[in-house]
Amino acid sequence: MKKYNVCVVGVGAVGIEMLRVLRQRNFPVNEIRVFARSARNIVVDGFSYAVQAITPEGFEGINIALFAGTEGEKGAAVTYAREAVKRGAVVIDNGADFRMDPEVPLVVPEVNARDAKKHKGIIANPNCSTVQMVVALWPIYKHAGLKRVVVTTLQASSGAGREAVEQLKEEVSKISAAGFENVHVVMEKRPMPQQLGFNVFPQIGGFADDAYTSEEWKLVKETHKIMHNDKIKISATTVRVPVRTGHSESVYIETRRPIEPDAVRELLSNSAGIVVMDDPQKGIYPMPKDAEGRDETFVGRIRKDPFVKNGLWLWVVADNLRKGAATNAVQIAECLIKR
Fold first, then answer.
1. Alpha-carbon distance 201 to 135, whole Å?
2. What is the pTM of this model?
3. Residue in 83, 25, 19 with CA at minimum distance from that of residue 49
4. pLDDT tens for each residue of 160-193
5. Which run of H or E residues covers position 4?
6. Are 232 and 223 a contacting pair, CB within 8 Å?
7. Residue 1 has pLDDT above 80, yes or no
8. Residue 192: predicted pLDDT
9. Statement to judge: residues 16 and 150 lie in one domain
10. What are the angstrom distances between the C-alpha of 137 and each of 133, 252, 296, 335?
11. Do 158 and 300 fall into the same domain?
12. How does pLDDT run across 14-70, given as a tens digit for each residue?
């Protein structure tokens, strides 16, 4: 088997997960390099990695460059992606900087793997909330079409980075230590816009003039691009919840052709990357605590709208650091090396 020189750019939560996923999926790595702003040594699952300070020259000889990205900020890919491409690498970027570039494929392998082959050096990884939604919707779209999607996401703290997880941990600790007498926590500085411990708030990303957030528009525009159909009516509300890892989504769809819930269950059960957990009478439905550390997208609570023809509800859960980021990126790399 041919082996490849791979680099991971960034050692935050997603970068660490990329290193983990490469090893767990036995990606054919010849040499692995890890880049960050400054040099250091890190250990992931007992394996040591020498992190190098990132430079353009560091990409010499690299075949595949995985950029971990940082949601809501300009990622390292803005500065270094084209430098890597100049040196012969294919860049797979988890950040938002190239997603809507018409020259850059936006890829979820279960949906549009062929698009990865159309790259001009850079391939974009979609937003985590988009990934799990399109994985669940694609088989239904192919079978019955989609007219409309209304989604409310319940997104974990890790989607905002390591500092957000620490914020949640500190807030929960302070409230617990106070015996739950007061759920309001005073902190000098918060990475998230509101308290998250024992709280939820409907803001992920900044607000635009139309009162929707940037995260909500990602779900719309990225889904249109991945599915190659901008006629699907999509509206979203994104909510941050006090969960460590694992995004949940309440997804309402209106299909173009009738399809019964049992048919949806069978369809999804036979689709790549999906696990159906749907026996609510026995308390069986997807939950983020069970999805953490898994690569599949979990779907349950599949039911008809009793008042709207062709209306259906789905409950969709996935690990935002893995399928929503690191695993999807490595799966794209796997698409590239297939012959």
1. 26
2. 0.96
3. 19
4. 999 999 999 999 999 999 999 999 998 888 899 9
5. strand 4-9
6. yes
7. no
8. 93
9. no
10. 6, 10, 14, 21
11. yes
12. 999 999 999 999 999 999 999 999 999 999 999 999 999 999 999 999 999 999 986
Q: How many domains does the chain have?
A: 2
Concerning whether 128 is annotated as a catalytic residue, the answer is: yes
Instruction: Examine the pLDDT at 71 and tell me if it is beyond 60.
Output: no
Q: Are residues 198 and 65 in the same domain?
A: no
Q: Are residues 315 and 188 both part of a single domain?
A: yes
Give the pair of three-digit tokens for residue 32.
């692995």
Give the CATH number for residue 276: 3.30.360.10
- Catalytic entry in 7, 128, 184, 224: 128
Domain of 42: which CATH number? 3.40.50.720
Instruction: Tell me phi and psi for residue 35, to 5 degrees.
Output: -120, 145
Tokens (6 digits) for 331: 């799966």
Whether the Cβ atoms of residue 205 and residue 120 lie closer than 8 Å to each other? no
Other beta carbons within 10 Å of 187: 12
Same domain, residue pair 160 and 307: yes
Residue 163, Cβ density class (10 Å: 0-12 exposed, 13-18 middle, ≥19 buried)? middle
pLDDT in tens, 196-220: 999 999 999 999 999 999 999 999 9
Whether residues 122 and 229 fall in one domain: no
**DSSP symbols for 12-61:** SHHHHHHHHHHHHTT--EEEEEEEESS-EEEEETTEEEEEEEP-GGGGTT
* Whether residue 172 is found in the same domain as residue 79: no
Which one, of 319, 256, 291, 330, lies nearest residue 94 by Cα? 330
Residue at 199: amino acid letter: N
**Residues of the domain holding 243:** 131-319
Do 199 and 230 fall within a single domain? yes
Q: Is 304 helix (H, G, I), strand (E, B) or coil?
A: strand
**What is the identity of the amino acid at 308?**
V
**Catalytic residue, candidates 7, 143, 184, 247:** 247
